[in-house]
TrEMBL record:
UniProt key word Signal: yes
Organism of origin: Asanoa iriomotensis
PROSITE patterns recorded: PROKAR_LIPOPROTEIN (PS51257)
Gene3D superfamilies per the UniProt record, alphabetical: Periplasmic binding protein-like II (3.40.190.10)
Pfam families assigned to the protein according to its UniProt record, in alphabetical order: NMT1 (PF09084)
Record key words, sorted: Signal
Keyword flag Signal: yes
Protein name: SsuA/THI5-like domain-containing protein
């Protein structure tokens, strides 16, 4: 399904179908615009298949999916981009699908990308999408109120062995709790089920991302993120990856794709309220449960605000969007080496390549996007 439709001049005229793997699970009505109108000035249009390691296209992906999709940033770069979710919050599934050649780019957990690249030379990180968004969340009245309290406790995870789960186990290890002292409980049926498990104390903590903590509080479960010794700035939790084939054989296409992603980030950082409105209009199934649209919007806005806060690299704005230091990355993969999850001699260049991002960033001007963010008329809720 084509999702590059630009509706900037029509103020979100229609809804877009959400595709999960091969099944259409939701579609809104409204006028259908063809991509040809958006790319009419292009001499040619390049196809890009894009996968998100997620159950669906959620509010957390607003900067690198919904905004460039809706505002035509992909189309402006003469790209025809198909966005799909992997169907599960499991980076290994998304990376495995990229290995088949079905997808050109994707957004998995960085840790999963490093482990995957240590085994198979298929993909490289080309842009870091999040920096401090993984954490351990607990109910305010729960039995675990510090990482050290997790010994003998049950921690919920989307799936055992995911990059997110490994981050959380490493956080606990630095407080003296070994992985075999924690019982991991897979919960893959949504955040409502996780919140109920925390409320009923079926689990003592949840290993998740920034938007999960906001969602728990939105659902009436007072909760917070544990303060850990793990330096979350070392290895960015989220990353945009591209296949080696894409990097080597279609570098110009990938540069244009990265430029569209940068535009999406600038817009969402400048106008998170408008980015939220775009996300809810495109994917109404991502709307949080609430008594009315205004309350739902405020809950959604809180999720987007948290994600955008965690999208800025350490040292931003001196450190541009998408970048982080080699030293931080080297120190970040050290725990993976100690746990024998990656080869001891794994090199940065074997899993990360910011060459094209460097080229794009040199002449990228955020001012037109910031002006668009100021003047754009988003739908009201």
């Amino acid at each position: 399904m084509n999702v590059t439709r630009s509706r900037r001049s029509r103020a979100l005229a229609g809804l877009t179908c959400l595709v999960l793997a091969t099944a259409v699970v939701g579609c809104g009505g409204g006028e259908d615009e063809s991509a040809s109108g958006d790319t009419a000035k292009c001499q040619s249009v390049d196809k890009v298949n894009y996968i998100l390691a997620a159950a669906n296209v959620s509010l957390g992906s607003v900067a690198y999916a919904q905004v460039p999709q809706e505002l035509g940033f992909f189309a402006e770069e003469c790209l025809d981009v198909t966005i799909q979710a992997s169907g599960q919050t499991n980076s290994e599934i998304a990376l495995a699908q990229m290995e088949t050649g079905r997808f050109d780019v994707g957004v998995p957990a960085t840790l999963s990308q490093v482990v995957f690249a240590g085994k198979k030379s298929v993909t490289k990180s080309v842009f870091f999408t999040a920096f401090t968004n993984i954490g351990i969340f607990v109910a305010n009245d729960g039995p675990a109120q510090s990482p050290a309290d997790l010994a003998g406790k049950r921690i919920g995870v989307t799936s055992i062995g995911t990059g997110t789960a490994i981050y959380c186990l490493e956080s606990a290890r630095l407080d003296g709790v070994q992985a075999d002292q924690i019982e991991q409980v897979p919960i893959n049926s949504g955040l409502a089920a996780v919140a109920e498990a925390l409320r009923s104390k079926k689990i003592d903590a949840w290993c998740g991302i920034d938007s999960d903590g906001v969602a728990f509080n939105n659902a009436g479960l007072p909760s917070h993120r544990l303060d850990t010794k793990f330096d979350k700035d070392l290895l960015p939790p989220g990353t945009l990856v591209a296949t080696n084939t894409m990097i080597e054989k279609r570098p110009d296409v990938l540069k244009r794709f990265i430029r569209a992603i940068l535009k999406g980030y600038v817009f969402a950082l400048a106008a998170p309220d408008k980015a939220t409105a775009i996300a809810l209009k495109l994917y109404p199934e991502s709307k949080p449960a609430a008594d009315n649209d205004k309350e739902a919007f405020e809950k959604a806005r809180a999720i987007v605000d948290e994600r955008m806060k965690n999208s800025k690299p350490p040292g931003y704005p001196q450190t541009p969007l998408g970048f982080t230091s080699d030293d931080a990355l080297e120190r970040g993969i050290e725990p993976l080496k100690q746990a024998s999850l990656v080869p001891g001699d794994i090199a940065l260049d074997s899993w990360r390549d910011l060459t094209l991002l460097n080229e794009v960033a040199k002449d990228f001007d955020p001012k037109p996007i910031e002006e668009l963010a100021r003047t754009y008329q988003a739908p009201s809720f």
